[in-house]
Design brief:
It contains 43 helices and 23 strands. By secondary structure, it is an alpha+beta fold. The strands form 5 sheets. Strands 1, 2, 3, 4, 5 and 6 form a 6-stranded antiparallel β-sheet that branches. Strands 10-11-9-12-13 form a 5-stranded mixed β-sheet. Strands 18-15-20-21-23 form a 5-stranded antiparallel β-sheet, with no helix packed on it. It comes from Oncorhynchus kisutch.
Length: 1252
Amino acid sequence: MTTGFSSNSCRFADYFVICGLDTESGLEPDELSALCQYIEATKFRDGARGLASADEGENFEQSPLRRTFKSKVLAHYPENVEWSPFDQDAVGMLCMPKGLAFRTQADTREPQFHSFIITREDGSRTYGFALTFYEEVTSKQICSAMQTLYHMHNRFNSYDISRDTLYVSKCICLIAPMAFPQACRKVLQQLHQAVSSPQPPPLPLESYVYNILYEVPLPPAGRSLKFSGVYGPVVCQRPSTAELPLFDFPISQVFELLGVENILQLFTCALLEIQILLYSQHYQRLMTVAESITALMFPFQWQHVYVPILPASLLHFLDAPVPYLMGLHSNGEGDRTKLELPQEANLCFVDIDNHFIELPEDLPLFPNKLEFIQEISEVLLAFGVSPEGNPLHSQGQAKHWGFRSTDLVTDRRNGNLASSPLNSYLLRENETIARLQALVKRTGVSLEKLDVRKDASSNKDLKVQCDEEELKMHQLNIQVREVFANRFTQMFADYEVFVIQPNQDKESWFSNRDQMQNFDKASFLSDQPEPYLPFLSRFLETQMFASFIDSKILCHDDEDKEHTLRVFDSRVDKIRMLNVRTPTLRTSMYQTCTNIDEAEKAIEMRVVKIDHTALHPHLLDMKIGQGRYEHGFFPRLQSDVLSTGPVSNKWAKRSAPAQWRRKDRQKQHAEHLYLDNDQREKYIQEARNLGTTIRQPKLSNLSPSVIAQTNWKFVEGLLKECRNKTKRMLVEKMGREAVELGHGEVSITGVEENTLIASLCDLLERIWSHGLQVKQGKSALWSHLLHYQESKEKTDAAPAGLGPPGLIHNTERRKSDAGAALPPLKVSLIRDMRHIQNIGEIKTDVGKARAWVRLSMEKKLLSRHLKKLLSDHELTKKLYKRYAFLRCDDEKEQFLYHLLSFNAVDYFCFTNVFTTIMIPYHVLVIPSKKLGGSMFTANPWVCVSGELAETGVLQIPKHTQEITFECQNLGKLTTVQMGHDNSGLYAKWLVEYVMVRNEITGHAYKFPCGRWLGKGVDDGSLERVLVGELVTPNSENEDRMCRTPPMQQSPGMMRRFVTISPNSKPKLNTGQIQEGVGEAINGIVKHFHKPEKERGSLTLLLCGEYGLVWALEQVFQHGFKSPRLFKNVFIWDFLEKSQVYFESAEQREVTPDENWQTRVRHFCQFMRAINSTSRNIGKDGKFQMLVCLGARDHLLHHWIALLVDCPITVQMYEDTALIKDRSLVNSLIRVLQTLQEFNITLEASLVKGIGI
């Protein structure tokens, strides 16, 4: 049979439930909840309040003693429906999350409505809608039990059975497959009214309950439905499959409670999967904020623990070391400071009632934040909602601007101001709002104009079938949601281009899902405007983004697609058609939402003309006398008439077998609740579960063993996350093939590296805060480190030699072995902590912990340090509970092992981030062993340059030839200029190499030289520019693993020949020389093809080993005639002779053509400039400078062409020389021409003193 009209086969509500006090079993303490309360009460003795002193207007909140009685599910109808099994524990807990509440006649007893959500193990959801009200307690036993308890605990304010009437909370609830809170609230309020009003309702209560359970269908997609409550009609409507998914909570309330600025921050936290804790005394507010934030994420879906209302008995879930979005009910009197949260380093805490939000550090800005706030504010103002938020509105009080000085303090601290016209000057203090006001003025949006627009729209004489307020709510909802959805359609308009389709079948794709890259992040990010990067690079790492792309990969055709994906893709296509600009070129131009009107029209159409009307409630076949009840008490209903529905109802399709109905239900969920149809259920579900171990806690009465099991799941989850994160970071750093081959090349952008390291820091914080005994400070990791430092310093009393290594003891060592170079830095966890503690810029514990992790990563000591930290078992025992991750030995070992893999790559995550701090550097000059520098009389100097800065000239003591100095972070080191003043009798100095080490990170750089510095020796140079490379520490260290080869190496490299004099160089043949030039040019081309942030050192490619200078040196050395035995001839001599020839040729005006003239002019100009420089650089140094300048100005190939035809070449070169071979020279010129397209910027140290 067909199941085309799937939506018809599902009913509006699955169950009707009554919860409350079970008089037969009497008062049962709710153990877990009681325990939580007891702990709270002992923490703050003032927690206990008397019965009568209840906070007015507060829902079910009383002295600790009273809220700990178990509520029971007294009845539910029908007994069970096959497609949605009844979960007694969950429903009982969520209808009355804090158990039963008692009141006396002195307290307010207003009915309270709230909704909740139950997430099943397969990820599907059911919604609950509960109305809680108070009924008089008729059982004498319970009244006297209450009095006895009161006398035991409370000497004052006690409840007196003879004087007071005792009331207890009761709750009626609808469990429904879809969230229609407005309609359900009306149904329940009318049912309650029927019991409490003096006049009995027209029909027995059973008729109305039967009607809502069996005779009211869900409205089909894109249609509206009207059905009857006890006293009036109820209307609900559902969007079509082309519109945004169903959402029926009032978003305006969320904006009134929190304000646009806060909501945007909260929204950013949710998108980055930061732990979010909502806090309020109203259950419904918790639910509304949670559902609104997740609905605004369209097309993405929250993938982790989602518990908008956390029952008291599940408080230990706040310890969960995974991303979560949870709602915690506050007592109304408890202050935020008293709330002990296990994990705050990466927590977003939202105090809904106080219009206040605490954010984690380093939260990136949402792209185009200001324009976005402006666009949302315009929508809100049009509906008379203040963008700054106005908590008083949402409490349903008189609509006036509220302002209290205490609010002002929290609001100022928080960047939000209560909107009081009197205090507009305060707005100036708040930049965002001030800029916003300026924007509002500029765009001419004024409240008056907007209000006019509103009146105009309501005067269209539309006969609206639902009340005005409700229509307004729908209109505001859809407008705000469209504005949010439009942000994502603009940001990800071309996302499909970057989806990496797997080349294997689904099964094998699935089994390797963890390792697969499903989205080309680097290319996507390189297209984005710079300001978007901090947010986007983190967002692309989230589980929700991965799941979104997974579902895209799994749905090849439109039929297959999840509803959200289908809607999103159709919008993206629309944008593509409208945008004539090339879709891949991103601009940061802000484009506002254009399809608000059509979305709004769709809703208006549905409420003007109602599509379906359900059957009216009618008398049921009940026995005489059934259905009676006592006024003021909600009765248990007649279960026999409510246990089954009508047999012949045309839409109920009773004949359809159960599995068909289940399928229909899933299909219809797929439209609006993001569930998937059968064949993809398994895939998507697994994809979702990859990063999440637990979606929602099992809501049952939790025994210690269940809690232990949950914690165990967390421990496994953390380990898995650690494995995936370390792998992901290594893959990013080395590239895929490299990881498989065991080596790699640096290829990771700064932004992306920062993102990955930030998420690693977050993971470490979560691990360290799992199972903490007592929380101290916001960072659990730093707190543990401080404890360790304290205990070690007690035992060590005074650690010796913390300063940089001295200058004296090194002389002894040099005599024995100059090759030993620098003594290794002592590995010390405490010393690394001290380095961080000395950095004044870092103010917070979380910041210090992150800096320490970055430093340890850079030093390749993270695993080792943490192992050391955890080896203090006594301390770990003192700080952590038995079930904590850090006390699970096997998992801990595996975790440290995963971190060990970071030693395989070079990170500069500390050096590159803390660019302004002072760092001590140690410089050591190693003269040649063969010709010891002991007789050397001149005064040497060095100048060290890095990617961030250079030091200026530093004098080196000539006897030790080493210094330690402190200066602002130089970044990665690139060159050392060194020389001497040529003073004294023996001013000749043969230097083997120079070592420079960063004394904080331990990175040591070696700058090879192997040449003389001195007049009349080698090329007569008194100063040289040396190019350095990072030295790898020896592998003696047992914790070190394999390491990346030096940064710019490529496979076909020739061996380096260390030379004392230029003549001893071995001769390379022309093939090898060509290869050398090719490799050098190739390195430069590759350099420029990388994104800017990934590029290594260009200086190294020009002047380093096998760089361009070296390669051209080989070209000119080949076949060079050496006239006399003892006189060295340098390439520079040949170039100078050629210059003389060209200058005389110019004067003789022997000019082949104009081109030739220009080339000659340039060549001679550069030669003169270099020769006339005040620096004492030798002939090879001058050649190096000429090559660098020629490369910069794209002149090298012209000069080679000039020199080939120069008569001097004939004189100075053998006939077999490469430079005389036309075809070889032509190919050399062609290769050099490829440099023309690059903009080469030279480091200052290479061209000092040249004014061209």
